[in-house]
Each structure stands twice: as C-alpha cells, then as structure tokens.
Amino acid sequence: MLGRMPDVRLSSPQGRWILLTTVLGSSMALLDSTVVGVALPRIGRDLGADLAALQWTVNAYMVTLAGLILLGGALGDRFGRRKVFVVGVLWFAAASLLCGIAPDAGTLVAARALQGVGGALLTPGSLALIQASFHPDDRGRAVGLWSGFGGIGAAVGPFVGGWLVDGPGWRWVFLINVPLALLCAPVAVRHVPESSGGRTEGRFDVLGAALGAVALALVTYALIEAGAGSPLVALSAVAGLAAAVAFVLVEKRRPHPMMPLDIFASRQFTAVNVVTLCVYAAFGGFFFLAVLQLQVVVGWSALAAGTALLPTTALMLLLSARSGELADRIGPRVPLTAGPLMCAAGMLLMLRVGPDAAYVTEVLPALLVLGLGMVTLVAPLTATVLASVETARAGLASGINNAAARAAGLVAVAALPLLAGMGPEAYRLPGAFDDAFDRAMVLCAVVLVAGSALAFATVRRPTPDCRRPECRTHGSVAVPPLEAGRGPGGEGS
C-alpha cells in the first residue's frame, strides 16, 4: 500500500484485523505503564531493592521511551510503519520476558530500559497504521474505537496488575506481554498493509535522539542518587545539563532535526508545552506515590490499591469527549486554568489518606476531584497543542508534546521523593512514608497551581480553522494520546 490512498473499510474483515492489531500493540505499552506501579512494593520486597531501585524500575522505561519516541515515528515513516511496529512489538515482548525472569534489581532496570526502546518503536505505529490503512470516511470512527478500547485497557490495567501481583506474582505483570505479542505480530504481518511516509531523503537524527536520552538519563540519575552526596552524582548532573545544551545546539544546526526548534516560535505552543510539563510532572509523581501510599501506609493489597484508582480513568473515558466539545465552544483558557486547580485540590484532599483510611469517605472524594480536573484539562490541552501550529506540523507538535509529558513524569518520579525527604528505606516505614507523601502532595499541588497561572496568562482561543484532533476520547491519565493523523516523527501519512 506504499504510495496509494488508504482504502480499507472498517466494516471489512481486514479492517477489523487492523483495529485488533493496533489495539493489542498499544495495549501492551499502555498496560505496562499502568500496572507496574501497583507491583513496586512487592518487587522491592522480593528483590531486596531500596526506593531508588523502585524509581529506576519506572524511570528506566521512561528514559528510553521519551528519548526515542520521535525517532521511532520517523523510522516508521521511512522504512515502513508495519515493519517497525512489528519489530517494536517483538522487542517489547523480549524485554518483558527478561523483566519477568530478572534475578535482581539491576537486571530488572536494564530490561525496563530495553522495554522503553520497544515502546518507542511500537507506540507511534499504532495510530500511524490506522491513518495509513483506513479509508478517510472510516478513519475517525476507527480512531475512536482504538481510543475507546485503549481507555478500557487503561481502566482495567491497575485491576489486572493488582490481581496478578496478589495471585501468580509480580513477574506476570511483565510476562503477560509475551502472549499478547505472539498474537499481535503474526496478525500484523498477515493482515496489515505496509505503508510509509514516502520520504527517503535526509539522515535520521540519531545524534539528537542519543543526546536527548543521555541528558534525561544523567539528570534522572543525579536526582535519584542525590541523597548519597557522592562526586559521581554532581558529575552526572553537570554532564546531563551539558548533554541537554548539546541537544539544543545539534537540533538547531541539523538540516533534518528530530525536533526542529523553530516550532517553538509559536508562543502559544511553547506555553502549552510548559503547562504540559507542570501538569504531567504532578500526575507522574502522584500515580507513582499514591499506589505506594495505599499499600505501605493504608495497608491495602495490591489489588485493592490498583482498583482504588479506577474512578480517575472512568471519568476520563466517560467525559473527556464532552470536555473537548466544551473547550471548542468557550475556548481552552478556562479549562486549562480551572483543570489544574481542581487537580491540585484533589491532591490536597489526599492529605486525609492515612493509616486505616476509609475508601468512601477519604480516598474516593480526592480521586473524584482529581479525575474531574483531569477531564477538564487533558482534551483541551491536546487540542490546543495541535491548534498552535500549522496543519502540516500537527504530527510533530503532538510528538513533542507527548515526549514532554513523558519526560515530565520521569523527572517527577526522580525528584519528588528527594524533595519530600524520602529515604532509601522509606517505603518500608509506614510512618515516615506517610509524612513524606503529604509533603509530596503539597509540592504537586504547587506545580499544578503554577501551570494554571501560566495557562491563564498565555493561552488564547485558537483560530477558527485550527486543526482538531481526531482522537477525542482520552482513557489514559499517564500520557496524552498521540494525534491520529500523523506519527510523532512529523511526517505526513
């Protein structure tokens, strides 16, 4: 199907196979991002890991995913989206198997980094395959179904994760990806047509991708290990900042950069991405610590802790499309100002969650307020990012915003325990963890208020002919959805 207009109809058998393939592929990465947090206390206990190792269990995946996701989209545009997607699925499965049999924390962290590489290859491909395969008349419905099924996966992820941890064991949180991949890859090869962006000139910005990933890794290491106070930590921090500066210089001078800096000439695009950093830093810190709080301090099982967080995802599934429609009518400024404030209120309500907390009277109210805040801001945030640049660069804008959200989350997971005063053994000491959790929630609330103030000061209504995202249903609260029309590599479908 290279170079031809996409013509597969959703009602055809091939259309249903394509939808199944993309749902399975994206679900692997989405499930992984939502279920691992529930397993962290059990992983730490079984492997004798300290808090830093648990942070790396989350962040090793995010470092490689955030650093390479733009490159992954570009590889699909050049060499074929199906091919790169299948490679990503199989890579992800192999790394998941290594995670599942890891004998120690170091092996687990290394395998998680490899998982992130696979995720960077398969994540952009899911929506890109839909865009490149389906007839334009069916594309919107296909994306809606993809998003809806993905949202269901996000909703059941913590429940499944908790069930696996309390049942067969935490290793199955990773091993479950293997049968999914063994189903997904053959279906993709047999039923999904190959496609590419039609571009063959220019070089890949491998140096830019490498510098971005190295900068994230070194800064993350410095934040996680800062309590040790060793010269290596200080050296890592300096080297990470130097790598970040080098990344900017390389992107500025390359003829085909991974992240063209001139896109930030749009003040609104720049401002909304800073708002994204604030919002998703708070979300990343909250979801990392909340499942620990519910297990370590409140004393719930992994299943109960995972299930407890379902209201936020359920609200996103039910109301995000309506939130996007409201933002279309009144403009994004009010939702992007009010949404973070509501999220901040929800996190402050979590201060009431302590030992023997009751779910209905103490946990649920906080999650409902937080979920309503997420509903209010996430869809307008994505739409405003896309509306801030010309249509031809919508895919690039979406990819940058997605990478920014992931980077914000991993930095928050690294920095928040340090700023809240959590020691290496904090997750084994309920009293100490409870005190630090309260400080962390206050810090998250402050960051959200800052994001709200920035949105109020900078966000304006887009032009009437702005590009609307086809993906209007948001099921995952961990990251914003990729825009449906283009892969994060910035190339047209």
Describe the structure.
The protein has helices at 13-47, 51-79, 81-100, 105-133, 136-166, 172-175, 177-191, 206-224, 231-253, 267-297, 302-308, 310-330, 333-349, 359-387, 394-420, 430-458. With 493 residues, the chain is mainly alpha-helical. Helix 2 packs antiparallel against helix 3, helix 8 runs antiparallel to helix 9 and helix 10 (267-297) runs antiparallel to helix 16. The protein is globular and about 60 Å long.
How much β-strand is present in the residues?
under 5%
Give the class from helix and strand content and strand pairing: mainly alpha
CATH topology of the largest domain: Growth Hormone, Chain: A
N to C succession of SSEs: HHHHHHHHHHHHHHHH
Helix residue percentage: over 70%
> Can you tell me the residue ranges where pLDDT is under 50 for at least 5 consecutive residues?
464-473, 478-493
**CATH homologous superfamily heading of the largest domain:** MFS general substrate transporter like domains
Number of domains: 3
Main sheet attributes: strand count, strand direction, barrel closure: none
Q: What's the average pLDDT? A: 85
Task: Return Rg in Å.
Answer: 21 Å
Distance between the termini: 12 Å
CATH architecture of the largest domain: Up-down Bundle
Shape: globular
Number of helices: 16
Class of the largest domain in CATH?
Mainly Alpha
Give the strand tally. Answer: 0
GO biological process, one term: response to antibiotic
GO molecular function: transmembrane transporter activity
Subcellular location: Cell membrane
Pfam family, one: MFS_1
